[in-house]
Amino acid sequence: MRPLGVRGIVDAETMGKVQRVDKEHWSAFMFGRERQLLIHVVNTATEGDPTSVMKAMDSFWANTFAMEGTDSWSIRGDTIDKVVCEKNPKRALEIGTYCGYTALRIATRLPADGLLVSIDVDPLFAAIATKIIEHAGLASKVKILIGTVETQVTRISECLKVQGDAPAGPVDFVLCDHSKELFVPDLKLLEKHGAVGAGTVVVGDSTVYPGEGKAETGKQNLLAYFATHPQYRVQQHIGTQQPMAGITVSEWVHLP
Asked: Does the domain at residues 71-252 carry the CATH identifier 3.40.50.150?
């Protein structure tokens, strides 16, 4: 989960807030909630234990947003867990890393030789997520890229290449969790480059969570895109009170 749109590093920070790093060190410059999260994880979670890290992240965000959005976040997490367990992917892609929480949930359910590639446009968030994933002991299963699908589509395919010289082919699982207006354009680009195709399960979360901006209107909705393209079969859609929002699960199927 991340706020809607592209945020610059300075905009992502709370300027001038004094925060304890450890017993002897303090920081008072550009110390935003994402950095506070990282320090909280390092100071409270057991290193090498993904469950402990995710619990630390849960407690931090619950406190930050006074439990607002907890129910929606729980539904989202349960849905992703269920889809990943059913699909049992070996190669997965997440668009919108933010601080790495969902990457951890996916990576813990991958096989020993599985790989998740996660991409985020903000270098700060990508760096924080990298350290959190390392602290959880899952660095061997997660590769984080900085950029957009448009700029990194070739790199995405290279990272997810199967063993040997065989072409990568479609990934098993994709989570769209970035700017809502980019869901359909990025999915089309991945289709064009062969990263999404027959057998790929796509989960798109267009729910607006606490801390995010309002979704832009006038853009093609992911559910509508799936409904009008016969190669996709919608398996589940969990709607919300927000117009055109919710969690959509669809799979690219072999057409006759």
From this structure: yes
